[in-house]
Every structure is written in structure tokens, then in C-alpha cells.
Amino acid sequence: MKIKKLLSLFLAAALVLSFGGCMKREENPDEENLPEVTEEDELVLYHNNTELAPMLMALTEKYSSETGKKLSAKLAGNDFMGEMQSSSGAIYVVDSHADLSNWHSGGLFTDLMNHSGFSEMLQGVPAGLQLNPDGIGSYGIPLALEGFGYIFDREMISALFGEENTNEIVEDLRSCSFTDFESFVAAADSYIASPSEAKITLNGNEYTFLPEKTGKAAMLTGVFALNSESSRASEHLLSYVLASKFKSRYEIMTAPEEAVAGLDKILSSYMEALDLQTSHIAGAEGNISRGDEFIGGDYNYSTSIDLLTRGNALFYPGGTSDAADFEKSAEGFSENLDIIPMKLPVSEDEITASGMTAEKLNSSIVISSRYYIAVNPKADENSSAAAREFINWLYNEESGRKAYSEAFKAVPFNFEYLMTGQENSVPETENSSEAPEPENPSPENSSEPSSENSASEGTGKSGTEQNPGIETRPSHSVSNSLMAAVADYYAKGNWIPDMSFALPGDFSEKVLGKNLGDFWGMENWAEADRKNFIEKFIEGWRERINKENTAVG
């Protein structure tokens, strides 16, 4: 294998998420020397996603009406990158999962971390959300954060344990160990089959099931709503495996063969967590088995959505990006959703990533940003100045935060709870944009995930009131309880980055997806089967390192 110094020369060829090497940083003039934006200047925000169009249009119209500066959003054609290379467009929205390699190699990214007009803002973007090929600089501003974990209906927990116990049990599910969660899943499955006042223990706290399945619980057939056609949920769980061994995506992208070969023990834990999920599957009529009943039963994405919304399943492994489909399946269903971390049976001696602990892993959801705002280095100075003013308005000014909240109802990278000293209140999910501006609008930036479990500090809408006498109000409003829960995890530092996208470009389909597809058809996983999966996982990764005679990137 060639020495590490040569690795960056091959990054673009190896991964969908690669950047093709580091772009030369431009020396920009000091901010005070940048030209002022006038009302005659026009700024266009380019994008190529029809789902974003209504939100971006709402933002640009609000900005234009409030500032008097012309701004519009334009849906680009099929050749989005070519259009940007031939135009003077200053800012655009890129899809971090598909566009970045070609865009970076095409010279269309500005290193905003080292740009005098953006560097202060970018200091507030946590390392796990920064858009860069090698851990240096940042080439985009996260547009809206997404959370991934086990999604569930809080009213279902109330139907199982009583409304008076809902807040407490949800908090314990947020932070409990894999062992406790495994016992909870087994007890829930037994209760679904034969209801009784059985007891379970989470974090040392005892809870009792209600004697009968009533209300929403009456329709339960199993614990997990699973999709046999996609490995995406398994990729989210894989992020926990990778976060236990690697500090950053770049460490994954440049992992040597010996580091990959050393993943055998933690991958055994991954298989154990997958076994738990696929041994407790909710079907349309009752609990189903892994094997022919699962893979031959049309358990696709739409089915898994319906299983949760109909009340057949307790947990859905997925993300906030699925919320729109929940609402399509059952109007009003998204009003009471919450999310807990995926759990991994990992011990402290298995964790080698700096700053990571087993407690941190099992109390954190996965958070990522699919879309980023990027700035074109080819744009003229007037357009660049106009782009800087719009981005500052969007994230830092009160009217911009309000417009962001109204358009996206999502969590921005600089979300935080604002402390005001009022009594007996918890964060709101609507109309929160009137909160006073913080002294520092960006959250504390850390180069690595926090190892503290701060689940008892403060609260989101999904939690219980922990701090009487202090009102916590978010800097942005969000749309529902699910986004409020994601905001709560994010503000407290209880999250890990989406690490799976640092794997080789075809790894998910050709290695992970293919091998998991074989496993879904096995009713029982023998030790030899688990070992075979782990060997194929490691060998598939190592082959992709050797294919380019370099580490993936």
C-alpha cells in the first residue's frame, strides 16, 4: 500500500462522497473591503431538487420583501454543474450524497472556513457536520438537519404503560443500555402475544405494563416495522459501529487494511443488534419470522410506514425524512412522534475512537445534513457579498430565523436553547422565533463527539421538565414533536454523525446490502453464518482499498 501522503491523490475515484483532492484556498479580501450590496444587485439561489423548491421560494420571497434586495430561487436543468460553471451564480444547494465529488473537482466549492465573510459562522458547525474531504476547512453550510434512530408514537407508550409514566419511560429508553433495551423488546413482544401486568426495568427504574391491550396498543402485532428491500436502516446502525472505532469520516476514508481487519469483534455486536430487530418483526396480521415469511411477504418501504401508522409496530428504524410519508399514510400521525437511539451491545474495551464511550453511543441518535448551501468561487465580488448577506440573515438575524422556521420547520446547525429565567416552562415547537437573540448564536463547536450523557439536563417537548424556574426556548421553531426531539438531542450533544457515507461508494449495495439480503432469508443465524457475514464485510472493504492501491475517501 502506498504511503498516506499519496492517499489524497485518489480520493475522487474511490467514493461517491469524495471530493477529488483539496481545493486551493483563495485569499479573500478582508470583510471590510468587500463591496456593499445595493438594491440593484440580484442574487439567484440555484438548486435541482423539486422537493426543496417550495421552501427555497418561500425563503427568497421573504428575504426580498424584508430587505428590498432582489433574490430568487431557480430550479436548474439536468446539467446542474455545467450550468453553474457557465453562469455567474454565486450560491447553490448541493446534495451531499451525490454531487460533491464532481463539484469539488470542477472547482465550484469555496472553503468557507477560510473565507473572511463566512469563517466566523462556520466555526459554529460541529466537526461531524462539516463538509470537507480531509478534516480541513468546510465547503458548505448545513441547510437542515435530519435525525435517525427508532421512531415511535408516544401515545403507544401511554397505551402500554399509562400516560402518567410516558415521560419517564421515554427518557429511560433514550439513555438505557443495549441489555436493558433488549429486555424491553422481549417483554414487549411477550405482552403483545399475551397481555399481562408484567414488569420491566430500564436504568434501574421499574415499569409495569397495563393489564390489557387497549387504545392504540390493541393493534400491535410486533415490535419493529422493517423493510426487507433496503439496507438503509442497517446503515444507520452501522454508524454506531464506525463511531466506536473512528473519530471522523476522514479516518474511515483513509483507514488502512489493518484497521478494517480489526473490526471483527464490533461487527459481531452489530450482528447481535440486527438479530434483535429481525427476531421481533411486526406483520400485518401478527408477529412474523425472519426468513421466507419476511422476504416473501412484500415488506417494502411503504409497508413498513403503514405498519407504524396503523399501530401494528412499536418502533420504526428510520429518519425524520420519512415524516412526510407518515403523514400521507395517516393524517395527523406525526403530531406525537418521538425518537430514541439505536442500541449497540458494545463494551468500553471495544471502543477506540477518541472521546467516545458506550454510554455516549447508546444515548445518541444519528444526525446528518443531506443538503448544503455552497458558494461559487467563480462569482464576482458583488454577488459573493450578496450571498454572504443572505446567509447571515438566514441563520443569524431574527427575521431570517423566523423565515427559516416557517419554510423548513426543521433544525438548523446553529439551533440552541435560549435561557430566559421564566418559570415552569419547556421548549416550544411553534412560534418560538420571538425569543431574544443569544450573545453567541452558534452552538459550542467540538472537533469530536461529546462523551457526556446530558439527557437529564433541560428538556425538549419530548422530555420531562427537569429545571423548574428556568424557561428554555429554542432559537428556531420546529414543526412537531419528532423534530423537537431531534433538536433536543442536538442541543445537548447527544448525537453522532452519519458515518456510513464515508464507506466506499458501492459498499452499501455490493457488500452490505447483498450480504444482509441473504441473512433476511435465514430464520436462524448460526455462529458460522455470523462469522461468514463479518468476513465478507471486512474483505469487501479491503478489496476496495486495494482496488486503487489506496484507502477509500
Largest sheet data = 6 strands, mixed
The helix tally amounts to 21
Number of strands: 17
Tell me the overall shape: globular
Protein structure class: alpha/beta
Low-confidence segments, given as residue ranges, are 1-41, 420-469, 549-553
Work out the helicity level: 25-40%
Radius of gyration: 24 Å
How much is the average pLDDT?
Answer: 81
Instruction: Report how far the terminal alpha carbons are from each other.
Output: 15 Å
* % residues in beta strands: 5-15%
Topology:
Layout: H1 11-14, E1 42-47, H2 53-67, E2 70-75, H3 80-86, E3 91-95, H4 100-105, H5 119-122, E4 141-142, E5 145-153, H6 154-161, H7 166-175, H8 178-193, E6 199-202, E7 205-208, E8 222-224, H9 232-245, H10 249-253, H11 257-261, H12 264-278, E9 281-282, E10 287-288, H13 292-295, H14 301-309, E11 313-319, H15 323-329, E12 337-340, H16 358-362, E13 365-369, E14 371-375, H17 381-396, H18 398-408, E15 417-419, E16 472-474, H19 481-492, E17 495-497, H20 507-520, H21 527-547
Parallel strand pairs: 1-2, 1-3, 8-11, 13-17
Antiparallel strand pairs: 3-14, 4-14, 5-11, 5-12, 5-13, 6-7, 9-10, 15-16
Helix pairs in contact: 2-18, 9-12, 12-21, 17-18, 20-21
